[in-house]
Design brief:
This protein has 109 residues and is of the alpha+beta class. It has a two-stranded parallel sheet. It is globular, with a radius of gyration of 14 Å. The two termini are 17 Å apart.
């Protein structure tokens, strides 16, 4: 049996390096040979007109390792989602610099 899991990159993880970290974390949590992971971008950017979207507050609450991985998405609204898309393409195509790359390629769709 093969299980397909659809998950999303949260808007605080937008950007090339942040998205790579998010995918790595997802794959580590769902580490099972019969699980195929499909990754989407949840929101393409932080939006000031959505009351529950508290980008700056959530940014401040992120672990330092995530904050250091790239610019805050709310300060790079025009490019953060494009960089996330590029990261997803690189991971899928096997151009990501992760040691488990071949294993990740088999699990990520």
């Amino acid at each position: 049996i093969e299980v397909h899991v659809v998950t999303k990159i949260w808007y605080t993880y937008l950007g090339y390096e942040r998205t790579k970290i998010a995918v790595r974390e997802i794959l580590e949590e769902l580490n099972h040979p019969n699980i195929r992971v499909h990754v989407l971008i949840h929101w393409p950017r932080c939006r000031d007109d959505i009351s529950w979207m508290k980008c700056e507050e959530e940014e401040a609450a992120l672990p330092i390792s995530i904050r250091d991985a790239g610019p805050p998405p709310h300060l790079d609204k025009a490019n953060a989602f494009k960089e996330s898309w590029r990261a997803l393409e690189d991971i899928y195509l096997g151009e990501e610099d992760n040691n488990d790359n071949n294993n990740n390629r088999k699990k990520l769709d």
